[in-house]
Amino acid sequence: MTVSICMIALNEGAVLNGLFRDISNQDYPHNQIEVVLVDSFSKDNTLEMMNDFKNSHYGFMDVKIVQNNRGNQASSWNEALKVATGDIIIRVDAHASIPRNFITKNVMHLEEGESVTGGGRPNIVLGESPWKQTLLAAEESLFGSSIASYRRRPVQKEYVDSMFHAAYKREVFAKVGGFNEDLGRTEDNEMHYRIRKAGYKLCCCPDIISYQMTRNTLPNMIKQKYGNGYWIGLTLGVCKECLSYFHFVPFVFVMALLGSIIFSCFGIHIFLILLGIAYGMFDLVNTVSCCIVRKFYPQFVLLPLIFPLLHITYGIGTVVGLIKLPFWKKSLNDSSKKQIEEVKEKIISNTKR
Question: Where is the Glycosyltransferase 2-like domain (predicted)?
């Protein structure tokens, strides 16, 4: 089976060498691999690195480079789908690392009858500095990040609602179409909802693994969390079915904190005290857990401050998204629906060739 491995990038020159090395080291026959790279008009050396990779002789079936000027992730993924010709289409983020057998393992499970496959996607960090390891500890903690099953390696095959770095049979996109370009950050949640609604299952396999790079600085991590929360708020107006209650936990925390502060201003302190005790217990327990299960660094003492900072930032993002939602929905038109159908037609057209 031929495979199209797709990656999109915007100003990712600092991290692409590692992923390109991982792709070139894949043990699946290179003459059956098509590499599709989408650059969103980067201002750094991203496009230059893509061209250097294309001109390297790794024996791939093809290396395609596409430029996308429509701005968001969903539109870039759609551009990748439009030119991908493989029987299997694999999506990999620029901030990622994949082992040598990544393509081979996905193909094996798809040939066994699955339609969408993937595996655990734990976080890693570039460099071994104590501060970076502290940020990694916060990101990997259930308390600091997410309970999503795909973040950890499953012990047995299981079917999940969403996955990172997934592999899809071509027929899946031929049936459901492309990504919703109205969305940012949550385009994969919405896509996977449509895939499940169409009758396909997303299989998380214990022998498949890939890695996502944690943001290396606290400001970048805060920016990421705010953006995630912001798009959760907006996505509620487009596809609430693709979201879970857990996506709104930081929002509930921020609203509870705000309400408790307001009551406290009127002399009613009990709510703020109870919230502080409850949150403080979770904060302390998870900090201690990080210190026990991971290699300890003195900077871990800052985790009790990092955790609430991430939660509050995410929650504020959701609040802003919900406030903007009515105005944002008015600006939407049918262009995204047209793009979804256009991708479907292109996938079908490329299949017939």
Answer: 4-176
Q: Residue 334: its pLDDT value, please?
A: 77
- Helix, strand, or coil here: 147? coil
In angstroms, rounded to a whole number, what is the distance separating the alpha carbons of residues 7 and 25? 16
- For residue 316, which of 232, 246, 238 has the smallest C-alpha distance? 232
Alpha carbons 323 and 118: distance in angstroms, whole number: 35
Residues 317 and 250 in one domain: yes
Query: Which segments of the chain have a pLDDT < 70?
Result: 144-153, 352-353
Same domain, 184 and 307: no
Q: Judge if pTM exceeds 0.85.
A: yes
Asked if 227 and 314 sit in the same domain, the reply is yes
How confident is the model at residue 147, as a pLDDT? 60
d(CA 291, CA 277): 21
Q: What is the pLDDT of residue 151?
A: 63
List the domain range (segments joined by +) for residue 304: 221-330
pLDDT at 152: 67
Task: Tell how many helices (H) and how many strands (E) occur in the chain.
Answer: 12, 11
Structural domains of the chain, count: 2
Cβ 210 vs Cβ 119: under 8 Å: yes
Instruction: Check whether residue 242 and residue 98 sit in a common domain.
Output: no
pLDDT for 141? 84
Tell whether 154 and 273 lie within a shared domain.
no
Question: The domain spanning residue 16 has which CATH number?
Answer: 3.90.550.10
3-class SS of residue 252: helix
pLDDT at 143: 78
